[in-house]
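Ticket opened by: R.M.
Priority: normal
Category: complex prediction / small molecule

The reporter submitted a protein together with calcium ion and asked that the result be attached to this ticket for the collaborator who will pick it up next week. Submitted input follows.
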Amino acid sequence: MQILVVEDDHAIAESIVAALVAAGHGAQCVGSGGAALAADGYDLMILDIGLPDIDGFDVCRRVRAVSQIPIIMLTARNDEIDRVIGLESGADDYLAKPFSLRELLARIKAVTRRGVVQSSQTTFKCGLVVLDTASRRVTLGGSEVILTAKEFDLLEYLVRDPGRVHRRQEIMESVWDMNWYGPTKTLDVHIASLRRKLGSPDWIESVRGVGFRFVEQK
Ligand code: CA
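Result attached by the on-call engineer:
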């Protein structure tokens, strides 16, 4: 993978790039939000929140408006509010400084792995929603819905088995993985975002005390 590291602290940037290269990835580093927005040709972005020009949340939102690329945000501030803002701005995962490079590599693996069992079927249609796992595109009534990588994985998980109630724990284990440290709030944030992007909360029904199910809408 080609990975773009957006970090203005040279020491941190260099250690991340060295770890990525040692793990077999290509890595390129930029030190500002503007340079990050101008960059292209990469498969994943590691994005620091504190940048000299545009903050990481804003960079994330702008990238997300045009791309479903996985984004992992870095921050020095380890509190719930930042984490939720990061996820709402479209990040797929969130890592608080200081973190180990091993942990970062695990997160990269987690956001890029497919959260569901592979099968030969690539297109799933449920009412107006059509999800194509080959191109990782979702359309609603023919219009493309731009999702983050994790939102796509979550929707795919639900749409593959519409009508069935999926337990929260089961969803977390399948779509995220056991390395994920922010248990259920993350799922709620992604569910809320999917409902918003699909234009109605009715697509995903909350089953109190159990989990969620995808419900076909006409
Ligand atoms: Ca910084």
